[in-house]
Description:
GMP Synthetase, Chain A, domain 3; 26 strands
Amino acid sequence: MAQLLQKMINGDNGARAGEPALTDRHGVTSWGELNQRVNQLVHLLRSLGVQPGERVALLSGNRREVYEIIQAAAHSGILLVPINWHFAAEEVQYVVDNSGSRAIFVDPTYGAAADGIDLPRFDFADHEHGGNSSYETALAGQSADEPEAQEMGGVMFYTSGTTGRPKGVRNTAFGTGGGVPPEVYELMAAGMVNIGFPPNGRTLLCGPHYHSAQWAFTFFPMVGGSSVVLQEKFVPEETLRLIDEHAITNIHLVPTQFVRLLRADEAAKAAFSGESLQLVLHGAAPCSPQVKRQMIEWWGPKVTEYYGATEGGVVSLITAEEWLRKPGSVGKPMANYIVRIQPEDDEGGATADAAAPFEPGTIHIRNMMGTDFEYLGEPEKTKDAHRLEGMFTLGDIGYLDDEGYLFLSDRKIDMIISGGVNIYPAEIEGVLTAHPSVVDAAVFGIPDEEFGEQVKAALQLAPGAVWDSATEASVVAHAREHLAGYKVPRSFDLVEAMPRSEAGKLLKRELRTPYWEGIGRSI
């Protein structure tokens, strides 16, 4: 019996075996069934010759099979590579190749993006059109007996890269292969309790499972005995219904989802109780103070904000009560983190001393648990993120106040956060400048009431090119061919020449700043 699941099922003398572990709109998987299917999956992976530390890819929407594979990775020493289901075929191929994945599991809804991949492929059941499932057939051919010599595996996430390609993040907190699962993962599950997750609770997943926060805030509570209800796509009225229907105790949301919930159908809002909710975590993007106040007024003090990233985990936390006293803060560092604000000199190098209270600088972080990260195959990027000995930075600018509360004020890098999704302009700029009508491009984020930011592109046209509806349509079609839809610019500006310094550096802030004047925020 899979070691982590064994404790969950047998902790109450086996009484939990028949209780729901995973629920989606197509059915329910009990803890006992989950244990059996995870055992079969571990045997399947071993039959393919996948060794501990190696990778397998997953291209899927939110469905129960995802967590079967996550649990199998946790017990077989492998690293699961979840792929953004919005990725175009070219991007999916890159992630599979770059990660060195040995097999791929595919949701038929997104199967076309994986059609060119030459790996063992296992398709989930097609609930819309029927037909045989190679995934189910493969599982049926494997033993449900408990695998021997289980090892801790984990997940390797890909985050968009500043050089135009997604970066694989190997975070030791998410597993790198090897070790004993209960000892390591139960420590992380205990950390979830410290954040406020109730043991044996019920988690609602209403965001993409391929985001590290969605994975962490479902999987680790699951290790502590929490069941998971999966919503395929976020629809605010359905989210409210599912919370009450399944007595959900904890949920993770991003600010865009807050906005949509506040705008939900009035009848759905009036019918909503939310009495079961104990923790509402939000992060991934800056939240408008007005929106957050409205959510606290509606859902109460259970709304808690965190600051973190795939690279670093949960760095700081702030309760609703604290936030109302310190609006705009992302909280105090967690007990296992040290945050240092490092000013820079005129040359961009770190000064000798840390910043004084309220003095802004680059945020550097040390995880006292000893976990760290690297970007797969990119040692220079890994080095650049570790500029101070024993610490790392995500490139954010902020300050600590006189009570040790952390505030974010800017991003040093040009990253756009739209709807909680990180978007890096360099990749988009590279695609745009490959169009014959474009000689130069600058991509940046501008304010968006619902998504926080939207993607804007400033273009310098090639000599002789004319900007009209046909050219714009051609540029958009070209972008959609090579990029996920959410990365395609929503609007364009034309410039005669890009603003650049004497050294030739693009002065993107000159293009971006006018859109943010009078907004009251810059990220």
